[in-house]
Amino acid sequence: MLNIQEKFINLLMDLKVVSEESEIDSSNIEALGNIIEETKLLIPVVGDFSSGKSTLLNKFIGKDILAVNVLPETSIPAELYYSEREYNIAVDKDGNETEIDDLSAENIQKYSYVRRYINSDNLKKIDPIILVDMPGFDSPLENHNKSIISYLDKGVYYMVLSAIDAGTISKSLMTQIKNIRGFKKDFSMFITKSELRSKEDFKAIKEEMLKTLRQVSYDKDIYSISSKDINLFNEVITKLDPENICKSIYIDSIKELIYELKSSINVRISALKKDKKANDKIIDDLKDAIQKIEAKRARLIEDEKNKNYESEVNSIVQEVGKELNNNLDSLVNTAMRGDSEGLKEEMLNIIQPIIIEKTNIALDNINVNISREISADVKSLDSVLSEYNIPNFIQKIESNIEKYKDKIKIPKLKNTGTSSNTVYKTVMTTAAILTSVVNPIIEVLIVFLPEIINLCFGFLKDRQQKEEIKNQIISQITHIKRELKVQITQIFKENASKSIEAISESFDEELNKKKEEIEQVQEELSSKKDLDALISKLQDNLKKIDEVSNVLYSE
Length: 555
Description:
By secondary structure, the chain is α/β, with parallel strands linked by helices. About 65% of the residues lie in helices and about 10% in strands. It contains 19 helices and nine strands.
């Protein structure tokens, strides 16, 4: 376990004690502690087919366990874990796990990825970093989609490899680099097989690659790896600073838990200082607000049936059409070679990064608008709850929803009587949410692009004039835009309905929590407890939280 994991877990244990002493629900604190304890930092190793990924990883592992020179269409991602007992777990698209011995192509193609447990000192040393051997990016589009898109939400950092004999970064690889950046992830770039060229050639190729990578704001060096010496690769892995990666994932969520706990204690202190009549009034106000949110949720879902998200969808579709037209000469040249697979690949390379970037922006706008719609009817609560030492409460909920893409969404623990380790849900980030929207769009592209391209080549079978090919591709760009518009609109409508439910539920949870906290105080007021002693205890607990906060902020 990393030092930062231990520190965060101990810190959360201190918060849990304070929460329980204050008679405040600590399930969120416990859930986050479980998530941190089981952290695995997945680092996909990506590159074109024959870029030397598997050879490099075999040398790092210390044994030839990964297949080299397999056909690109037969490969799936392989996560590499340390274990004294060596075995393999294959995972299908529904998350079902099967232990398998035979990893031949015909046996693994039905699975999404495989977890390989290997007895390797180097894998043990880098724990909790988990390297992932990814399919080459000149494998079929289906493999591109299933691998890189599925790992964009899971990978925390990327190692990108390009063989020196390629002379440049391929279009396929550059597309995936743009996708990595589109999901706000970082990477290191490696040139492999560097012994195949002279020092002068290597320098020139490196400079050209750096120039290309400036498009995605790459600000690091490009590392050279020969097939005989992988020490540098080892060094870069060990210098990735997993402590800092882990810290960046969880620190905002811990800060949010601290804010929520202090808020709950402040509400209790303020309610204890008021009389029952004043507390009953705020309880009624909170009940009324919850009813308003339920009514607004129902109206928004009904209104959703007539929404087409024309502005958001057109922004994406028009950008796709623009970039396809900007690359028209290249598409024409590919078509003139009779390379239908190449044309399909090139079109997807152009379209995919646009879909990811623009969809991210559109989802943000949609969710912000939904949040503001839902909160509009309950804004008055801000002034009321400020009397309970929680100013700008509704505004804070809005703000959390707007920035939730950069946070861990902490799940609720269920009261099942089972171990807490088994009852929390999967961590959700914006990358995961974005993936659930982007993936269906890319799947649609994979289905209808071949139809469009086959139609294009059918028309061109007996006519190879460049101008005719150009006109035919232009007509198919119109078809692509039209098809994308239909599919993206439908996917956005489905996602918006889910967002309405999720966002309204977030407001409900927060308002109910405050209502229940004040109701609890009402019972204490009726029980004739020593209220001064209770208030003093809660104030002491606030000081304890500040001590925990000081440790966190000193990081």
